[in-house]
Amino acid sequence: MLFRSPDARIVLDNLGQALNDPVLRGSRMRIAGHTDAKGSDSINLALSKQRAQSVADYLAKQHGVDAKRLDVAGFGRTQLADPANPESAINRRVQVVNIGER
């Protein structure tokens, strides 16, 4: 598993701790992967799902988060963070959203 940002592991470790907190332990989370607009739709969709799955795998393996609580989704380039700059690095991301109780 490779995380490009040097701070990514710190962020994921903090997230893992938060997900194990009693306040969030009953919640399901959507792990949503996104890409920039470079490349084909099919490649971006696969890449975004792989990106999200890497985060989910890390949370499960390193922090014991039940994989059933993690809804992994890939959105490719369909939800750009910066539509005015479709090839900007800010569009390549993973978002974590609380989607409610299990």
Helices, by number, come to 2
- Largest sheet, order of strands side by side? 2-1-3
The mean pLDDT is 94
State the helical fraction.
25-40%
Number of strands: 3
Q: In terms of structural class, how would the helical and strand content be classed? A: alpha+beta
Label the overall shape.
elongated
The end-to-end span amounts to 28 Å
Order of helices and strands: HEHEE
Rg on CA atoms, Å: 14 Å
Q: What is the percentage of strand-forming residues?
A: 15-25%
- Which regions have little confidence, pLDDT < 50, spanning 5+ residues? none
Query: Main β-sheet: number of strands, strand sense, barrel status?
Result: 3 strands, mixed
Question: Describe it for me?
Answer:
It is a single chain. With 102 residues, the chain is an alpha+beta fold. It is 34% helix and 22% strand. The chain contains two helices and three strands, in the order αβαββ. It has helices at 8-19, 41-63, and strands at residues 27-34, 70-74, 93-101. Strands 2-1-3 form a three-stranded mixed beta sheet. It is elongated. The mean pLDDT is 94.
List the helices and strands and how they pair.
Blueprint: H1 8-19, E1 27-34, H2 41-63, E2 70-74, E3 93-101
Parallel strand pairs: 1-2
Antiparallel strand pairs: 1-3
What attributes characterize this protein structure?
single chain; alpha+beta; 3 strands; 22% strand; elongated
In short:
The chain is an alpha+beta fold and 102 residues long.
